[in-house]
Amino acid sequence: MSDQITPEKIYSLSSNRQINDLLNDVVTRLKDYTESQVQHLNQLAKIGVALSGTRNLDQLLEMIVDEARAFTFADGGTLYLVTADGAALRIAIAQNETLNMRMGGVTGAPITWPPVCLKIDGQPNNKNVCAYVANSGNIADIPDVYEAPGFNFENTRKIDAQNKYRSKSMLVIPLRDHENEIIGVLQLINAREPETGEVIPFAPEYRELTSALASQAAVAITNARLIRDLSNLFDSFIKTIASAIDEKSPYTGGHIERVANLTMDIAKRMNEVKEGSFADTFFNEDQLWELRLAAWLHDTGKITTPEYVVDKRAKLQTIFDRMELVRMRFEVAKAQVGSDGQVQNSSELNEQIKRLDEEFQFVRGCNVTQEWVPPATLDRLRAIAGETIKTANGDEYLLNDNELTNLLIQKGNLTDAERQLINNHALVTIKMLEKLPFPKKIKNVPYIAGAHHEKLNGKGYPLGLKGDQIVLQARIMTLSDIFEALTAKDRPYNDKKEPRKLSEALKIINFMVKDGELDADVVQFFIDQKLHIDYAHHFLTPEQLDIE
Question: 52 or 95: which carries more pLDDT confidence?
Answer without folding.
Answer: 95
